[in-house]
Write a structure and sequence with these properties.
Binds directly to 23S rRNA. The L1 stalk is quite mobile in the ribosome, and is involved in E site tRNA release. Protein L1 is also a translational repressor protein, it controls the translation of the L11 operon by binding to its mRNA. Belongs to the universal ribosomal protein uL1 family. This is Large ribosomal subunit protein uL1. The protein is α/β, with parallel strands linked by helices. It contains eight helices and nine strands. The strands form three sheets. A four-stranded antiparallel sheet has the order 7-1-8-9. Helix 2 crosses helix 8 and helix 3 runs parallel beside helix 7. The model has no long low-confidence stretch (mean pLDDT 91).
Amino acid sequence: MAKIGKRVVKSREGIDVNKAYSLDEAIKILKDRSSVKFDETIEVAMNLGVDPRHADQMVRGVVNLPNGTGRTVRVAVFAKDAKADEARAAGADIVGAEDLVEIVQKGEINFDRCIATPDMMPLVGRLGKVLGPRGMMPNPKVGTVTTDVAAAVKASKGGAVEFRVEKAGIVHGGVGKISFDAKALEENVRAFADAVNKAKPTGAKGVYVKKVSLTSTMGPGLKVDLSTLATA
């Protein structure tokens, strides 16, 4: 059995694993207990009452966090001609067409998010086995297959976070950095939770959101009181 480090033990001291903390209290605990030298990511995980094996219970979407993610996102855009120029002007890190497809096919993925214009999808479709497992395949449902590449690039750079339910019914995503002030983190968490709630599929029955927890990269996991997640 792996030995639990002293820092982890200390971060968990006094934590009641059965208690549902209010959102502001959970954020305060994580911020107060951060003792590492890097800027930890704050992540929210939502346990949903869905079975994603059924198409009508799939949960997927994108949310634009009001205060950004705090991380630098490298964006690649599959586009040609004027749309390629628009993407570059909007700040895309990598822009290309057939040449970019070839690069990705070789396993060179030097980006975090992928956008494509509709006319490029027959080409990009060849990359399903490469981009799909990484959750990076462009999809119109989350705004990454679009003719408005400038807006998509700016959203990706500014704080757009994609989410997709996993096999166990869990949706999770990074919602900021430990260095963010508490109010900014609260707003981001609520925006994420609201987006997941709005993405409730038609096939979901019974309780949709079962449990929500908040954690930092090196911090404890804290159960959050669902009633404190509602947006004003």
